[in-house]
């Protein structure tokens, strides 16, 4: 886990770049209150099938935060949220796509106010995170986690 909370999204160095996914799964969800929970379950089931559960709690937390942000702030009413899981040789990447405008930014939380901590959590738990444009409207917010090249048993 990173020890600092960067103000800007983190990026992977070129030598850590994605060399083509070894495995990937994608699922499309309607914009609903239940989407974050369904996205967590989808990611957990996918990682369990791939025998890649060594950081499952961290990955589930980040998936939940990114999907919640997409539902609350990204996907327009009647829209959808796409969740993609990519397994690379030493990096696992979770992407959450939505059709909304704007670029998510990590905010400083104020006191005991509810909300505003999602990207702080992602920044603290994921090894890298970022926001990227996509074809068409919207954006992709992603989190990446280093893992062993050999799957857990």
TrEMBL record:
Protein name: Histidine kinase/HSP90-like ATPase domain-containing protein
Gene3D superfamilies found in the cross-reference section: Histidine kinase-like ATPase, C-terminal domain (3.30.565.10)
Keywords assigned: Kinase, Serine/threonine-protein kinase, Transferase
GO molecular function: protein serine/threonine kinase activity
Pfam families from the UniProt entry: HATPase_c_2
Keyword Transferase: yes
PANTHER family: ANTI-SIGMA-F FACTOR RSBW (PTHR35526:SF3), ANTI-SIGMA-F FACTOR RSBW-RELATED (PTHR35526)
